[in-house]
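step: validate -> pass
step: tokenize input -> pass
step: predict -> running
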Amino acid sequence: MFAIISDIHSNIEALTAVLEDIDKRGIKTIHCLGDIVGYGPNPKECLDLVMAKTEVCIMGNHDHATLYEPTNFNTGAERAALWTRFELETEPDKELLDKRMHFLINLPMRHHMELKLDGSHAHLEFVHASPRKPIHEYVFPDDAFSSSPKLGLIFNRVHHICFIGHTHLPGVFLDDPDFYTADELDSVYPIIEDERAIINVGSVGQPRDGDTRASYAYVEGNEVHFVRVKYDMEKTIEKIYSIDGLDNFEADRLREGK
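step: predict -> pass
step: emit ->
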């Protein structure tokens, strides 16, 4: 049994609420699909929690942008990346600064696991964006209907099950091609040995599917469970408003879940 979180985006209130929910379920192992930072007001605190609580963490595009350059980012995302970098680099505790930067720099782009789930064999892959381009490529629900050749090429890189984040839209892609939201699945997807799937676990810190609650998933037996968790959204919003280096839009969108 393990949990999968993604796209925390420096939202410590959402991350704390999700970690509490995971703990209440008795889940001891957590994998993170990246974008620990970006957009939100608490990058250092989120990094510290992810370092302490996760077994595996993947490089996200905002993690990458904070370290290097926010290429092809919109203005708000770019401002957030540059502000986040400043926050991390001006940490007065050099040991803590080095620990955080070393963690970010060494995040892998992929992680693989071979498991027996209720007697069946499962090959699991974890990336931030897509199995084809693990840091930057977006896989949108509409791709299943309007860009099926793109989805076909992406599925060529899928051995069995691939967990992703990046779009902040929880649901399951099948290679028919098709896409099912978490709601359409009643929040449960059964892993089948001969069925390939790309599973988006949604976003902890900035949901975009119209539901303002934090999103994550966990695997128990051969089932993937999608979970939503309420958190103190207004507290996060007020923090963003108070920081000149962050765009107010990143706060406003939390209220809309978009």
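step: describe -> The radius of gyration is 17 Å.
step: cleanup -> pass
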